[in-house]
């Protein structure tokens, strides 16, 4: 007895009954004619890509943002987003990959280079002239919400600097920080470490690579494979020791668990071991809560905090653990967004030809935040969202600051200043 | 812990979830994807045809008892006509409450509404927007379609209606009255008609072509999120009776009902989790009593356990995914492997004539239940003391042939909820 979930990507397309539910739910197809919708670009076009036929019927699949809403709503279990990702890789192999996409895929490298001289890098990137230039020469949208390199050192620097102060414990957990926490937002990692230590866990941060998602979504499967192989190798000690690996970037954890093994056909023992050891941090905290281990010594926080579960979070199919935990905090009102996607979809909304599509997709979410702000007398001063690029898009679209739920939890424990985004030293 | 986990987000599952949550139970609904309601016409069909009889049923509630005496394992036979009538009355009340009022004929006769090929559909309850299409009324019809709208052909509909003695003529309008998009489906068009700027253009164009005394039929695209306003606005501006004819999937009237029920459940604190596929379960056994403890759903890595006191199986039949079949003639219930009444020999699935008035045995197959709506094992006893079943998975009905799909869903969903509430009180 089997269910279609266990089918590999290819055969799942035979489950398509052409009901068009995916096309009706697709946030991209809803705002542009350039993407004909998941059913057409996925299972239908796939028939022309199989059996050694050289090219995709057209290149519209490049406009799939990879948000995976189609997978979420498909009643028969077709892995549409994965079909599209593979089709894009095939297109990339046939037609070549533009320099811009090669760069955007290399988050780890960009992070490292910028971190050498962050102030210079920020100045170099974040001025009007270079943004116009980047748009004209490279096709990176001038208004897209690009991150800033951390001027106070990387997350790795901070871990090294504070080694002596870190908690030692028999209970251990491995932390996967991802590139954004490492180079742009080290305070997310600091908040995660503080929360984990507060709950009695020693946090181990082994060397690690980019999860490879930006490469996968730009069709560079070969380079993504070398990253994933690196992660399987570098994290194997923790896996063998039986430690859980928790991550704060929900798309990184999704990639380690499912996207990389599935798209790259890496189902060996070590890759499978890594997959089963990885948790989104709130998925993991919810398990602790349900077994009565999570500390709930929260301070009261009288705020309205609209929360958006990113599409990549929903793709984990674990429900809304961050929402469940945040709602334990006394005084906190956490209205949930039902928007399908913020639009940015990793590097999608950075591309000049896709920037406006991303903003139009995100309108649903921005409107939700505005509506919440209108309907609460105290107003809305910030939002919460688990994924970094989604937060940057949310800030860009609403003008309000956005926080990772782990920052909010750390603040509720009294460990973190939510406005200054830094740990409260004791 | 949950009191009730409902598996399946079709009509029966959502009706049961609503009734249980209103009785104070802690309920969650999980589903593999969207479905069922998105495929249907958004009407409530109770009984259109008795098995083996060519003439349609005029007054369905009066025919439930003759049906039960000939088909003792029909779901209606377990419930009795009083319970079915009460369930339908409750449903009607619920639709008023959730802002999408359904109503029927004042004598409880079936209405006869046009299908998208101009055939007649015997319908017991319909949303306001479909009722003026009743073919028992005599006003001639102007059936309006749009050039290039797939799967809706006004000339075909009008021709077929005329052949059956109903006065009808067709009109096809340019689609740019509604949208400038080159690619769209019915859901996109409905969203476009949510806009009050678009509607007057369409109404005025129809107003120029319609004759006095006519009623106007349109594809079911008259607004999605703002449907009540869109429908009233168009009807007022045209100044003649207006009705929607449902389209092939995705069906906007079905999606409206799904969305309204989902919002209602949301307000009751019931989470409806889409994209969660049940793949396994856990049970315990004390003496001869077997109980379910949890149902597991697929995630990006390890399965997620949903622990609950009671479980409701509302996964539907072969199309809904509750029953799977293979080419050898094997069929199985997809979660608990409950015994089914589908013949094991594929040659016994169908009668020789495709349109045999007696129908085909495979479509009557499903799970056997007792009077409390609990699935039975081969020994005629409930297999699990805390498992219930409702909707399309039940044996005994050929719902498409009988036109009884929604009546069975609503009545068995309510009955299952009542059984569950009583069970949890003892």
- State the total count of DSSP E strands of chain B: 17
How large is the radius of gyration of chain B?
A: 22 Å
Instruction: Give the second-level CATH assignment, the architecture of the domain at 2-40 and 256-405 and 419-425 in chain B.
Output: 3-Layer(bba) Sandwich
Treating each run of at least 4 consecutive H or I residues as one helix, how many helices of chain B?
Answer: 13
The poorly predicted ranges of chain B are none
Radius of gyration of chain A: 21 Å
Low-confidence stretches of chain A: 1-7
Named CATH architecture of the largest domain in chain A:
Up-down Bundle
Topology:
The complex is a heterodimer of chains A (426) and B (426).
Chain A: H1 9-12, H2 21-25, H3 38-49, H4 69-73, H5 80-95, H6 99-105, H7 107-116, H8 118-125, H9 128-138, H10 155-161, E1 172-176, H11 178-183, H12 186-198, E2 202-204, H13 213-217, H14 221-234, H15 236-240, E3 244-247, H16 250-263, H17 269-277, E4 278-280, H18 281-290, E5 307-308, H19 311-314, H20 321-326, H21 355-375, E6 383-385, H22 388-398, E7 402-403, H23 405-412, E8 416-417, E9 422-423
Parallel strand pairs in A: 1-2, 1-3, 3-4, 5-6, 6-7
Antiparallel strand pairs in A: 8-9
Helix pairs in contact in A: 3-5, 7-8, 10-12, 12-23, 14-16, 16-17, 21-22
Chain B: E1 2-7, H1 11-22, E2 27-31, H2 60-70, H3 75-79, H4 81-97, E3 102-103, E4 111-114, E5 120-123, E6 126-127, H5 128-131, E7 141-146, H6 154-163, E8 168-173, H7 186-192, H8 199-209, E9 215-219, H9 227-238, E10 242-245, H10 252-267, E11 271-274, E12 278-286, E13 289-297, E14 304-313, E15 323-325, E16 331-333, H11 361-364, E17 387-389, H12 399-402, H13 405-425
Parallel strand pairs in B: 1-2, 1-14, 2-11, 7-8, 7-9, 9-10, 14-17
Antiparallel strand pairs in B: 3-6, 4-5, 12-13, 13-14, 15-16
Helix pairs in contact in B: 1-10, 1-13, 4-13, 8-9
